[in-house]
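Run log, item B.
One chain of 118 residues. Sequence copied directly from the ordering sheet:
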Amino acid sequence: QVQLQESGPGLVKPSQTLSLTCTVSGGSITTNSFAWSWIRQPPGKGLEWMGAIHYDARTYYSPSLKSRTSISRDTSNDQFSLQLTSVTPEDTAVYYCVRRKYMSGKLDWGQGTQGTEP
């Protein structure tokens, strides 16, 4: 069974860069037909999809965050990472890494980690 675990110095000050890593166990990030996403949830608000890197390294970003977001991967360690630049208090959220299976749409979630200053 796949497990996802977020890590990184999520608490950063305004104007700094938020950097998080998701470590995957029980599965490979290069396995065909999976997308690996970052999703966040600000306090009291709904979920927001930020972007994804697919099994074949294609990346997609939310238009509203594209200019500040970068997702990369380390296939040797089955990790994928998020960088969000120039953070503001509005970026305060719980950040989740998520695996989505193409055909079924099944989602597997990490436990989430707090990002930016609470």
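Observations after the first pass:
- Residues 53 and 81 are 9 Å apart (CA to CA).
- The first strand starts at residue 3 and ends at 7.
Flagged for discussion on Thursday.
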